[in-house]
Amino acid sequence: MHRRVMVPVAALLMLAAGCGSGGTGQGTAASTTQETGKKIALFLPESKTTRYEAFDRPLFEAKVKALCAVCEVLYSNADQDAAKQQQQVEAAITQGADVLVLDAVDASAVAPLVNQAKQKKIPVIAYDRLISGIDYAYYVSFNNVRVGEMQGQALLEALNARGTTAKGEVVMIHGSPTDPSSADYKKGAKSVLDGKVTVTKEFDTPDWSPDKAQQQMEQAITALGRDKVVGVLSANDGMAGGAIAAMKRAGYATLPPITGQDAELAAVQRILTGEQYMTIYLDIRAEAEQAAELAVAIVNGQAPTAPAKVGNGTADIPAFLLDPIAVTADKVKDTIVKDGFYKPEQICVPEVKAACEKNGIQ
């Protein structure tokens, strides 16, 4: 499967010797970069979702370093606190950041921050979450509606295979209401499931919290009865883990199929052992590196052309949208393992070893 639509931004960077791998850059903008350095600010929203600290941050920082040794990354994590993120962004502007890469805690409320940057002529790249209400330089993310469609289709296929599609209720556990991506996932999933399954309990989950998802699943089981829940549409893996914990606690002999997203290590292990049906594998390396390439290109005076545009309610934002991949147990080897996202020894701990062998992962 073709996973991403990318303009070869890195090729443009060869023009900038200060961040390239060749010439001296004498008499160019790159020589100024080499003398003074540039500051690239990266803001991530939280750490409850393991991907941000385990993948997004180190991959972004490594790519910036590879492309521009003299570029400094100013990194901040907001711990799901919008006020804290505001302080972090304002601090980076004060510190002279040349470009902001912003994964907003509340993407519908950060337009004033983006406006502050624009007044200082600092370009902004919306990372992972689409910022609304204002125009800015770029948006780098995945096709989020497609993510939801894939989750809905996978759940429907699992229910059909078990013959339970019309025999009970589906619980939907959506993401944070302050994350516009969550609305896209919901839209995509419902476009597939509406009219085909009965959805009786549906939750938005503040902070994408696994603990809150567990509480929500417990509420659903109590309200519906254990035997009536035939499937769970969970928007990500962390919340899927919370829902699975609730179902185990409720005494399910066989867990109903449940979806996820992010290919968290624990989720991949659950998929192999049969506790979780699937995850959406997002090539976070591609996303982080695309954002890093754009940021470095911007600080070197480049303006790469994006292959798409996404409307945010105010403007059409130049966008790089990467393709998600649906992964069930039989696809782990040829996607997650093949790409080196996790090594077999990371996945195949003793309690997962037999499942790994069954699926050809050794």
Concise structural overview:
It is found in: Cell envelope. The protein is an alpha/beta fold and 362 residues long.
Do you know the CATH topology of the largest domain?
Rossmann fold
What is the C-level CATH assignment of the largest domain? Alpha Beta
Order of helices and strands: HHEHEHEHEEHEHEHEHHEHEEEHHH
CATH superfamily of the largest domain, please?
A: Response regulator
The counted number of beta strands is 12
> Termini distance?
24 Å
Count of structural domains = 2
Give the overall pLDDT as a whole number.
Answer: 91
Strand order of the largest sheet: 2-1-3-4-5-11-10
Poorly predicted ranges: 1-35
Name of the CATH architecture of the largest domain: 3-Layer(aba) Sandwich
What key phrases describe this protein's structure?
three-stranded parallel beta sheet; disordered N terminus; seven-stranded mixed beta sheet; alpha/beta; 14 helices; 42% helix; SBP_2_dom; signal; globular; 2 domains; Bact_Solute-Bind_Prot2; 362 residues; Rossmann fold; single chain; 17% strand
